[in-house]
Design brief:
Strand order of the largest sheet: 2-1-3-4-6-8
CATH topology of the domain at 109-281: Rossmann fold
Number of helices: 6
Distance between the termini: 180 Å
Shape: rod-shaped
Number of strands: 8
CATH architecture of the domain at 109-281: 3-Layer(aba) Sandwich
Radius of gyration: 63 Å
Length: 283
């Protein structure tokens, strides 16, 4: 048999150790049991959290609204862009006839001859539609390079043009009907001190209208007078030079009517041939 040698002191120590062990074991398993020493040494927070309100009813503090006003942005224009207004179509300008164009605006070459064709009234002009309303004289003018066409009422313009041409260049005047009468008046004006007694190398009148153009001025070198035998009241028969030693006159009688003379092939040939001969003599 064993003998219990345990004393009271040892027994008391054993009880204390058992109690401490049970307390330590309980603190590891039960989180509610906290070591008083740890609580004593723990740092206490300097604030308190109010847990009286539930998390669902708590609200965040409102932020202050900014004091600076935001600028108003321009609203975009969503309307369709306006297309530029199209100008109404205007009709094309009507082309003027060559006889209606002012020859005054054309440049004058003083070293070229002055070849002037003068048409008469439209009522006495050629009815040919191919000539676009102006007389057969215009057709002859188109066949002569460098020539100009004027109306019967452009006497001053014709004189101004001739005065711009050098005096050593030939001057040729061709007129039909009232244009023939104007050609005669131009030669008379040039045969004066005012215009320097300018010589006219060739004067052609085709059934010139008037009763005071039968005397040819002395400044005309060569003259062709074409007249119709039927229209006595429109012309005053063959022409005569004022000084026959100064002018060579040729009369050409035709059975054609007044409006047909400038369209006749024989007359057109005579006119063109005389112009070419006159220009050839000056070369």
């Amino acid at each position: 048999m064993k003998t219990d040698v345990t004393t009271y002191g040892s027994l008391l120590q054993s009880q204390n150790r058992a109690k401490a062990a049970s307390t330590a074991a309980a603190s590891k398993t039960d989180p509610k049991i906290i070591d008083p020493k740890l609580l004593k040494n723990a740092v206490q927070p300097d604030y308190k959290v109010d847990l009286s309100r539930s998390a669902s009813t708590s609200s965040l503090p409102s932020l202050p609204t900014p004091s600076v006003p935001t600028p108003d942005l321009p609203k975009p224009d969503l309307s369709k862009p306006k297309l530029p207004e199209s100008k109404p179509e205007t009709s094309k300008p009507e082309l003027k006839k060559p006889s209606e164009i002012s020859n005054v605006l054309e440049k004058v070459n003083p070293k070229k001859p002055a070849i002037v064709f003068i048409k008469g009234l439209d009522v006495f002009s050629s009815p040919s539609s191919s000539e676009r309303g102006y007389a057969g004289v215009g057709k002859i003018a188109e066949a002569i390079e460098g020539s100009r066409i004027y109306g019967w009422d452009q006497k001053d313009e014709i004189i101004d043009y001739i005065k711009k041409v050098n005096s050593d260049q030939p001057i040729i005047l061709v007129g039909h009907s009232f244009g023939g009468d104007t050609a005669h008046e131009v030669t008379e004006s040039l045969d004066s001190l005012e215009h320097g007694f300018r010589k006219v190398d060739l004067l052609i009148t085709i059934d010139a209208v008037g009763f005071d153009n039968d005397i040819i001025p002395q400044n005309v070198k060569n003259h062709l007078n074409v007249f119709g035998e039927k229209d006595y009241f429109l012309n005053d028969s063959p022409h005569a030079p004022r000084r026959h030693e100064m002018t060579n006159v040729k009369n050409m009688l035709s059975p054609l009517d007044h409006t047909e003379l400038d369209d006749d092939k024989e007359i057109q040939y005579e006119v063109v041939n005389l112009i070419k001969e006159t220009l050839a003599k000056k070369v």
